[in-house]
Design a protein that fits this description.
The chain has 128 residues and is of the alpha+beta class. Helices cover 16% and strands 42% of the residues. The strands form three sheets. A four-stranded mixed sheet has the order 4-3-6-8, with no helix packed on it. The protein has a four-stranded mixed sheet with strand order 5-10-9-7, with no helix packed on it. Bound molecules: copper (II) ion. The site of copper (II) ion has 6 residues, from strand 9.
Length: 128
Amino acid sequence: MRRLTMISSIAIVLMAVAVSFAMRPTVKGGRPVATTASVAEKATVKISNFQFTPKVLTITPGTTVEWVNDGGRHTVEADDGSFKSDVLKQGDKFEHKFDKAGTFPYHCEFHGDKGGKDMAGKIIVRAR
Ligand SMILES: [Cu+2]
């Protein structure tokens, strides 16, 4: 009988610990802890060997595309002029956020031209 009482009191203590652990406040320093992090969509286009990879990239509206230059001097320039990078050297990056649906052809100022000529690519923005 005494043994059973001891076991049950241990069980009660363990349960109390578990409950207090589970009920720990999720607020730290007065600021609520975010439960649903809004993950910003991001996609990468690699610049190497005088080409953009992938050449055609399909994304959803709100996605930020990041061009990463693996070597050489290049630019990322929309055919319609809606975005344009500075001259990118090795290791440089350029970002552009696409909010609206549509097709956005672009090219490198030095090695390509409008209309998909040579060093060029395309971003297709399409709602899911
Ligand atoms: Cu180039």
